[in-house]
Design a protein that fits this description.
The chain is α+β, with helices and mostly antiparallel strands and 675 residues long. The chain is built from 24 helices and nine strands.
Length: 675
Amino acid sequence: MHKIIKITFIALFAIICFTTNYASAQEQAPTYQSLVASGDKEFAKKEYIKAKTCYQEALRIKPNDATAKSKLNKTLDAIREESKKEEQFFEHLDKADAFYDNGDFQNALMEYDNALKIMPKDEYAQSKKAEITQTLQNEKEKLDSFNNMVALGDKLLSGEKYAEAVMQYESALKLYPNSNSAKAKLKEANDKNAAYNLKVSEFERFKKQGHDFELRKKYSEAIESYQKALQIFPQETEISAIVSSLQAKKDVADRYDEKINEADTLYEDQSYLAAKSAYLAALTVIPDDSYAQGMISRIEEIVNSDEYVSIQREKEKLDNDFATLINKGGNAEGFQNYELAISYYTQALELKPGNQMAVSKKENAENQLLRQQQLAKERERQAAIEAEKQRIANIQNLINVGNQQITDKKYAEAELTFKELLKLDPNNETANAQLEVIAGFYEEIQRQKEENYQFAMSEGAAALANQDYTEALKQFNIALANKPNDEAATQQLASAQQMEDLRLAALQNEYDTFIAKADGQFNTKNFDKAIELYTKAANLNTGNPYPANKIKEIGDILAANRLAVLVAETTTINANQTKRFDFQQIDVTARRSNYLFIRAKNLGTEQYTMYVSYGSSNGQNGGFVVNVPANQDVNDFIIRIGSQYKWFSEDNIWIEVSPENGDVEISSMEISKSN
């Protein structure tokens, strides 16, 4: 079942224990009049939470009393108004703290003044205002010195003098250790200085590596190392010159090695004349090479003997004839003419009996020929089987399709189907019988089309009147299918399409409005309000996954910033009962961004109110009201608990949950914070 996310962020509410006087009064069974009088007294002192408790107790004695109800509603309005003032107070306080953290003391002072206009006695705002005033009076010279150091550091940083920039930023931070901008600039300078030093180290390493390879005449490796050095500092012209010089040496060495390797291979194959030509080619690269000269002298001694000349002539002719036959066999194999290839390999073996290459090629060609013949026979057999299977399947499919078309009164289509069947099976009895049946149905076909047309036009007009444009488009298309090119149906279809386009545009505009507002709340970390707006956008069912993804992203943020787990296993709290959950106090620096995340399920069938309160060892400090929906889904409730002054100012260590007139099942409850 689709999970419904319900976010409730309501005015400050508290469930508190009676004071000592109330405890004493409770023992004496307080009357309706005494409770109302106590409530009035607390209301006059602006102790609205205590007043609310008194009026509620009075209503328990007289449940429908109009006076008590009126006083309770007035008290709740006062609580909500106090909550709004606290929220405005914290907005100014948050802005002031942000300005202060960024060193913007003038704007910070202004925002602390704004906060004190709402809560004039707040010690935190008063102390921060005094601190800023004293700072502005006593440290102008220090600030000027700080700014000069930062400015000089910026100039050095832009000039890539990173080490000198680091010194300036470090000096500036000695004056203002908490300056985030100076810290960021110092980090940037240190990072760039470290990166530059690393580049220098890598450059020197590759340069030395290239020099070592150069000494060993490993020119390719030397060039590669020098080029890696150039990638680090491309402006190093000395390295570029070395690379150019090494490339010329490498080209000479490569050409020499190529010729020498070719010559050595030919010499080993006793192709002496070709080997001599290769050695001579090597000498054109390095004219005084002693190795090539020595090999040429050795070849000349061999080839000048009479016996070698005679044998060589016969060998050359045999080799040429053999190579020609092998090549012809290979070409034949390339065209998959294995019989011809076998013939050429057989002739080659007659010239060189037992030649392993020719034997191997002939065996391979014979195997390929056998496989080719077997595959051809198998393909023919399978093709015949598949053709018959397909023919039978096609016949049966056409029978099924034709019969269904007759059942659906699609007689023209059925006629074409059974005529197609007769092409596959000219004497098919079913096809012939069904064609006779179809012949009598054409009058019925025309009558049915007119009936379909009239019904579709009527349904389309009704849908259009009810603004159900999707259904209208469907019905007018059905009408045109039964009476193609009909002017009335065409006009109605165009009208329905125009209205549907307008509806979709309005829906998209509403969606865009919700998304824009939700993104604004998300960017300011008001996650409870953001989820409410993303949920409204998702409920428009535009098909865009963006709202659901953003809701998941908020859940991931809160999960990643979890500060305390109050409920890890499913817990049930019965109606009008209270259960307390203890936790370690949250660090004061993180409290203002706190969220309370509750995952709970209504065990009944009616909507009810759930009270969530919190407090310290000294007693209750505040709370919230949560509306639990009537569905039986597991719902997520996100409460911005850090917006309440008492949460921020007191060391709270417990949270109590009390469902009113309904049972609740809580599967998890956590305290988290925005990032």
